[in-house]
Amino acid sequence: MTPPQDDAPLSSQDEIRRRQQARATVMAIIMGALVILIFAISIVKIRAGMPHP
Q1: Would you say 4 and 13 are in contact if contact means Cβ atoms under 8 Å apart?
Q2: Model confidence over 7-40: pLDDT tens digits?
Q3: Which phi and psi angles does 36 have, rounded to 5°?
């Protein structure tokens, strides 16, 4: 990525920051979903391996 230019209008910099924030939010949601999925799979595998009373 190129560093922000000082001669860029403020609204352009605000737009760049908004897009970066949107990408960061999407990545956080995806990573959170992955963690939940791995946790759920682990729980299912653990329960499948345990004998039922």
Answers
A1: yes
A2: 556 789 999 999 999 999 999 999 999 999 999 9
A3: -65, -40
Distance in angstroms (rounded) separating the CA atoms of residues 44 and 27: 26
For residue 13, the tally of other CB atoms under 10 A from its CB is 13
The DSSP element (H or E) to which 36 belongs, if any, is helix 10-49
Task: Give ∠ CA 45-40-50 in degrees, rounded to 5.
Answer: 25
Tell me, what DSSP letter sits at residue 9? -
Cβ contact 16:24 at 8 Å: no
CB atoms under 10 Å from CB of 16, counted, come to 13
Q: What is the pLDDT of residue 22?
A: 97
AA letter at 3: P
